[in-house]
Design brief:
The chain is mostly helical. It is about 35% helix and about 5% strand. The protein has 7 helices and 4 strands, in the order E-H-H-E-E-E-H-H-H-H-H. A hairpin with a 2-residue loop joins strand 2 and strand 3 (about 80-85).
Length: about 220
């Protein structure tokens, strides 16, 4: 598997054909500051994307017309003459490699070095100049935390983050962390979820409980 053949399987969204405009989740007309965006990149994610030197994702994911604290999502700008409409990514080589890296990290020992090499390979592939430093992981927790960071950046806006945290957050010491600046209404109370928060388990729908009174609702709801 090489990162040169990155996209292995996707759901086609043809110009003028059926299927929704994926970027319509984040914006109204076009993926720039004048396109009426209603969701923008969170400040903590922006900081992580921007922490990599000479990384193309900084420019591929964020529109250059963005202003401070209003980082317009540009991962799905559209294709041909139809803004906002892109194919939906399902399987990508980088995700498969990160799954392998996570398995290696959990194995510990020599697996930590293998995981580090995979993470470096992906970061190198995303640089338009130079190479990255090989990560050094002193523990499985440290490796998983860095892998989750890489997944957050590489797979941004592809629907993985919640499941990633459910699966590996406790082992990596990583929970939902939102920047206070993301909330313009209650700036002193960012929307965070510690690892022990009951909301990492979703509630059982009322229809299920009504259909079988013997079902007990998950704690906290």
């Amino acid at each position: 598997m090489t990162l040169l053949e990155e996209k292995k399987f996707s759901l086609s969204r043809q110009v003028g054909g059926p299927g929704g405009n994926i970027a319509g989740v984040y914006t109204t007309n076009t993926t720039n500051i004048g396109g009426s965006p209603w969701w923008v990149m969170g400040l903590n994610l922006f900081a992580e994307v921007s922490s990599y030197t000479n990384d193309i994702r900084r420019y591929a994911f964020i529109d250059p017309t963005s202003t401070a604290n209003t980082y317009v999502i540009d991962k799905y700008p559209g294709k041909s003459s139809q803004p906002l409409k892109n194919d939906l990514k399902v399987f990508r080589i980088s995700e498969m490699k990160l799954i392998i890296a996570e398995a290696d990290a959990r194995a510990g020992g020599a697996g930590l070095g293998t995981a580090a090499a995979i993470v470096k390979e992906i970061r190198d592939a995303r640089r338009y100049s130079g190479t990255t430093t090989l990560p050094v992981y002193g523990s499985t927790m440290a490796a998983l935390a860095d892998i989750l960071k890489e997944r957050r950046v590489e797979l941004a806006f592809e629907g993985h983050r919640y499941i990633d945290l459910k699966r590996a957050g406790a082992d990596a010491g990583v929970g939902v962390s939102r920047n206070a600046g993301d909330d313009i209404f209650i700036a002193s109370t960012p929307l965070t979820l510690p690892l022990t928060d009951y909301r990492f388990t979703l509630p059982i729908p009322a229809n299920e409980i009504n259909g079988n009174p013997g079902i007990q609702q998950n704690p906290g709801y």
